[in-house]
Amino acid sequence: MMKTMTKTTTLFLLVVATGCAAAGPARTSPGVTISQVSRVEPLRLATLPLDPSVPHGVPVDYEIKVTNPFDHPVSLTSVEIETMGSSGAYSMKRVRHAFSLTINPRSSAVLPIRAWVQPLQDTDTGDVNGPVTVRGTASFTSDAGVMKTGFAARVQ
Asked: How far is Cα 61 from Cα 115, in angstroms, rounded to an integer?
């Protein structure tokens, strides 16, 4: 009887340990994803402005989705994004957007941002529509302290 109970207890502990391992590590910062929501205007329309205060290149709109997995609110303070490498449809130098947005516990927020990019490839018609890898860092504050989340995505 004792041997069967030990096997049952061991099996139970093994199942619990496996379940905990499958759940993955606990989140230490909010989740962040990025997606491109606008097309890149045709390269032939991307003329360089005469006014030096106007950015060169063309605007691209993105959406940043932030998910707060915690039982307490977090405040998004900034997002920095840039393209990786010099291949793809366009390049973007590091851009920083400041925020003061509180995200409630166990909820998400979607934020629009815009960045100016330099087209690198175009089609016969001047369209810029190839994939690009964008990476970034989101910074947060909360009662638990300062947190940063890195993210990356292939967008088009």
From this structure: 7
